[in-house]
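> run fold Glucose/arabinose dehydrogenase
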Amino acid sequence: MRLATFAALALGLVATVAPAAADPAPAAPAAAPAAASANFTVEEVTAGLVYPWGMAFLPDGSMLVTEKPGRLRRLAMNGTLGAPIAGVPAVVFENQGGLLDVALHPNFARNRLVYFTYARQTPTGAATSLARAKLSADLTRLTGWTVLFTQGPRFDGAGHFGSRIAFDGKGHVFVSLGDRQQYPSDPAAQRLNNGLGKVIRLGENGGIPADNPFAGQPGRNRAIWTYGHRNPQGLAFNPLTGTLFELEHGPMGGDELNVIRKGRNYGWPVVSWGLNYDGSPVGTGKHSQPGMVDSIRHWTPVIAPGGLSFYTGDAFPAWKGDILIGSLQAPGIVRLDMAGDKVLSEERLLTDRGQRIRMVRGGPDGYVYAATDEDPGRILRLKPAP
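> ok
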């Protein structure tokens, strides 16, 4: 392993905003740099992956890692990378599509069920799907692969698949789904008859809960929990409060962190803190509108968020309860200092490495693990400095 020592860089920035022409708003000033919240070392656990995307820790402390081309690997914490696990079906590996998130069922130790999101080929194009399978006791193969949900309508295109998986511990699984770049020709994320630009809620077996907000309404997708999302690649419950947080890519500016509430509309593409890539206003040109939920934090310039997780370990006491975000456009990790569900401040980590971080998670050992969006892709481990 290569080992480098870093003092974590705390920029303490308040996100600035590029105002849309029809609704001007002043930019928030940047705060002065703060002292580093923790000193840590960075170890390279492995460099043998191809565009790693999702990570899930097994009970023995090893890690399942998805690779976008369609492979699932087991990584031991000593750096040993296993052969691809058998039983993963074909995925569409193109542009933003591929094998994406992976998550263990809350009772994995008993039922050995693993959940995945991936781009699945259909007769009318690739579609984000949620599937589950059983991992063998020897950790070498998947059996009983079952598709639980497929995003629709289906169409050609290779962008904005989303997606992340989160369990609420109450028998439900939540999945974030991208808008598949239908805007501006079709504001599909605002329509309730499809799975585009949505967060959905299913039973753990793929059934539709009767108390979903639109379950009893004809002509509406009964799986929808919230709508009006662009390309959400972060989804996690705050383990201290039970609140669901979602993180999504904006267009040119306007990445968003949202608190997810049942049945609510999060605005895309009617309102946005960003602009279209040609510089024109998005939708109404406004940042917010009555009846639409505003983000609790937004970034312009964008960070291009990967995944998010809540840190619950003991190795970094100053980070406990905080949000860790993989950052692609501003390469590194974004740490949000949290007080319950409130964001207090922001710190940027690993900024001097220039590596796009797709996902970051705290491990059972209390250390922080980050997957780099590269080929060869790396898993990095952050440990307190001696």
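The CA atoms of residues 322 and 338 lie 5 Å apart.
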